[in-house]
Amino acid sequence: AFAIPLEGETGYALDGQLQFAGSQLSLPDWGFTISDIHGRLDFDLNGLSAKGIQAHSLGSPVRVDVTPLQDGSTRVRTRGNLKLKNIGTQVPALPLRAASGRAEFVIDVDVPPTDAPEDKPAMLSLDSDLKGVAISLPPPFGKTAEQSSPLRIRLPIGEHPTPGRLSYAGQIDASFTHDGRRVDVVLGGGNAQDDPPPGIRISGQLGTIDLFDWSEAVNKLPATEGSTLETLGLDLHIDRIQADHLGINDLHLNAGLDGGIWHGSLEAPNLAGEFSAAQKITQRPIQIDLQRLHLKLPLGEADFQPAPIPDPDDGPLPSTLPELVLNIADLQINDANLGQLRFNALHAPEGLHLTQFSLRGGQMELDSAGHWSHLDTRQGTEWGGRLSTGDLGDLLVDLGYSRQIEQAASSLEFLLRWPGNPAQFHRATLAGDINLDVGSGRIVELDPGVTRVVGLLNLNALTRRLRLDFSDIYKKGYSFDSMQGDFQFAGGSASTSNLRVLGPSGRIHLDCSADLMARTLNQHVTVTPNREATLPIAGTLAGGPVAGVAVLVAQKLMNKQVDALNRCEYRLSGPWDQPEIRQLDSGGTPS
Q1: 503 pairs with which residues across the strands?
Q2: Cys-Cys link to 182, which of 27, 196, 484, 526 (CB 3.0-4.6 A)?
Q3: For residue 105, what pLDDT is reported?
Q4: Is 212 helix (H, G, I), strand (E, B) or coil?
């Protein structure tokens, strides 16, 4: 019903209403439909108005109000508890793949008057506190369904050049054009430019970023057809970026994408370098060249616990990952200077082949190679090589362990295997062999209760009980000339049957195993004092030089018989930091 009364010759008046009863409104250009409309729409020469129109849209009941604004525009406000899935179906461009659930939304459409300038388009605004919506992303962008995080989106309707805006939880502010060719995103609380320049730019400040959490979250997202970007710039400051126990603080990432190739730089107090990579990362190797990388790792911490046993079927396949060439001019772990690192991983038919993993010019020299294979649906990693150091004692201390040994130039040859990818190295699934060859040095006597020790052996615990070295008169510990043996790893344990420690006052033979998960030892130790050091001295003390010479001649004749009489056997068992030591009845003379 409507009326158009004539008011003399000066103008017109309009007063009317439309009554909806199960009506439907379709907007074909947007593919949008509002159905089952019930209510009344009033109109006059000032515009349209309505209060509490009931309808259904996006799969949910909604309420619609229509209000004329002072600038001549008309605002159509829709309120409803809407599913994110239905909104994403209606507006595919919205980044909603990580979101699920439903929440209260307020959707405004501001329609300008017919005489509005062309630069004033109709605008759509969407507001919600997202309570009821879960976002499966790590901090600071993820949230539970119970939490509130304000979201506001403002979009020009149609292909209008006016940029749209998006803000979320005080962490994201973005401006963008409808075609996506001009985008400015500011993270961490800043404001995006109102009129972004050509290209895509992401800048701002982030807190702690966990690479493993983000990788897991991204892998769980539905796959989409990726588009090739022409240009993109990154300028980010990150308080901390970490992967398990590895972390980089105060990182500045500056990078640009041009012609399908990324070029960028990394700068932090303990890291500096450059990198390059293809946008499609499998097209060419990622090249990383660092001037320095200094890491702090809890290698010697007593309370450091390994991660749960990984599932070798989790994670990416080697064929889907890029090749990698990594060069580090100055690598340090804790206080250990490891020199120059070179790491090359290239594609091979069975997966990724580690053609070079080496260290040069530091406290440790390493030459190694390996491969990460994927055969018959099973993944596995194998790594073998040789490691050497001129001073094992200093190296262990600088890595973070307590002082357990002095000097002792050492070499170690190894061939190790474990299921899964290289990052799934775990003591419970480790298998393989290590050959140990240590030169002359001294086992230092540690205070009881010291826990930051190398767990496979605890010779210190044994040498606290044995005083074979006569230098104990003026020096604590146990001096040795060499230490050699082979270790086998399997089923979460390490074992050896031929570890020999030779010293000026005798020799120690160990047949032992260590539980790498429970951190316990079970060692059978045979100690044979050196005949040339003990018997002549004992004889001289007892009967003078002549008796000492007689004893020396006798021991040369008896050999093994003397060994059998002099040796002592021990059992070491229990926690590897403080095992229990028990002398066995070996038939030899007590020490």
Answers
A1: 506
A2: 196
A3: 94
A4: helix
